[in-house]
């Protein structure tokens, strides 16, 4: 009887380890996406100026910022005469276009004709929406999740 328990226990541990190995990264991605969607978000739609864009072509860009720790939409402020914004309380998303600044605490997202800048650095434009999580400490990390084993 005791001889049967040891192989069964070993097999059970191997199967449990394999399940965690396969599902672990997936569960982490689901959790990160939940955290990204839980915060107040700011969607910035902009077009890169043809003179500064790659190969002189005008390119539409969409950035989705998730502001970590932002629970109230009133905490996000907008400045600049050329900025237009809307807010959807159902999805907790601010929609922003134009030229100006989006401010949350000490964090400033600048919208200019050169593109979108954070911390003085221009953020890359992509054909797909760029997901950016702005952490509590001001660092930015990608909101995209890559499954890696």
List low-pLDDT spans. Answer: none
Strand content: 35-45%
Order of helices and strands: HEEEEEEEEE
Number of domains: 1
Rg, rounded, reads 22 Å
- Major beta sheet summary: 9 strands, mixed
Residue-averaged pLDDT, rounded? Answer: 84
Describe this structure in words.
The chain is of the alpha+beta class and 149 residues long. It has one domain. It is built from 1 helix and 9 strands, in the order H-E-E-E-E-E-E-E-E-E. Strands 1, 2, 3, 4, 5, 6, 7, 8 and 9 form a 9-stranded mixed beta sheet that branches. The longest helix has 37 residues, at 2-38. The protein starts with a helix and ends in a 7-residue tail after the last strand.
What can be said about this structure in brief?
Helices cover 25% and strands 42% of the residues. It has one helix spanning 2-38, and strands at 40-48, 59-67, 76-88, 93-104, 107-112, 115-118, 121-122, 130-134, 140-142.
